[in-house]
Amino acid sequence: MKKGNYHLSELLPDSKLPQVNSLRQKAEEKLLIQHAVEPIPQPKLTDKSQSEVDYIKLRYELEVHQIELEMQNEELCLAKEKAENAAKIYADLYEEIYDFSPSGYFNLSSDGNICAVNLSGAKMLGKERSNLTDHNFRLFVSQKTLPVFNDFFHEIFETKIKQVCEVSLDVNERLPIFVQLEGIVYEGGNKCLLTVIDITGRKQAEVALKENELRLQELNATKDKFLSIIAHDLKSPFNSIIGFSNLLVDKIRNKNTDGIEEYAVIIQNSSQRAMDLLANLLEWARSQTGRIEFLPEYVDTVALINQVTNLLHDSAQAKSITITSELPGHLIAFADQSMISTVLRNLISNAIKFTHPGGKIIISAIQKPGEIILSVADDGVGIKKDSLRKLFRIENHCSTSGTQKEKGTGLGLILCNEFVEKHGGKIWVESEPDKGSTFYFSIPKN
What is the DSSP letter of 102? Predict the structure, then answer.
């Protein structure tokens, strides 16, 4: 047995070191490094039966175990620190996901009070989160959809399964927003987790789709009516023109002048009617396709009325009808001169057509704040009550003969309505059978 100081490597060569696990290996390596610097001191033995080698081995085991414990403690501290950092990261990430999700999340009590809400939900309601706690969610549901929400909320707690519904929310003074609600109970059925998804865009798209569908139906009906008008109203005057032209040719060939003037007048009237119809059809078609430019300017409506009246003077004189005007000296409006001229021409022409010979037509204009109201009144046959509502729509197109069997195009009033609406004005009529009619329309001053 060696006397004096011993180095551990002398007693436990590398081939004999315990190889239990990596931790023990690291502990032994660390211990060897320590004793390479500080040799093990010679022990003072009190028990003669205990050998010096046994003592050194025991001390070695204790020191290895102590180092293992220290290393385990360090690993545990590092693991704890990593776990705490990871927990903080995940908590922050969860909070961000929760708050900035595109959906609103509400925790509601069984009576509908808001217990908690994320930032997106508070933003939907236009409130600060702190101002929503303990407020009832029903306060934000529109009265129109409140019964739907009440049934939905009752079913959540009644069935204990997820429920879905759609309601609208009244948020401050903004337009209502449409939302889809998904609700499910938690915490033993005492609370409800409510997910609120904004579907306003989808609802607007659905409304737009329905409006477009209705518009297409109207356009299709308009097209059918338009073709019907062309087929019917153009056929009649050309039949008259062709028929009486043939009679006129036969009369001339037979050198028979009886009735020639009458036939010529009929042909002339039929030709004029066909021309009027074509003119109205062309203008109406151009207005429907947007090919008529709306070019408003400041116009003297009194001068415009006088101009149109002069053009129709001969037609009125042929029936001994007097046209009078009740107009101021000047009346300036902001209007498209061509369109308003077309409106006046149609209304005055209709008044002449439905006024008995020797009758009277009065054209007047009054000035109101922001607008001018023009009117054309006659003392003619008037209009039946059930026909009044059919006058300005092509789907209700109707044509009535005048007091001398004058044929109408049926499109004049429809065209008037189109042009007046382009100005942002309106057109209406007051009439009684056998007492005459008064047509009014408004145009802006500025």
Answer: S
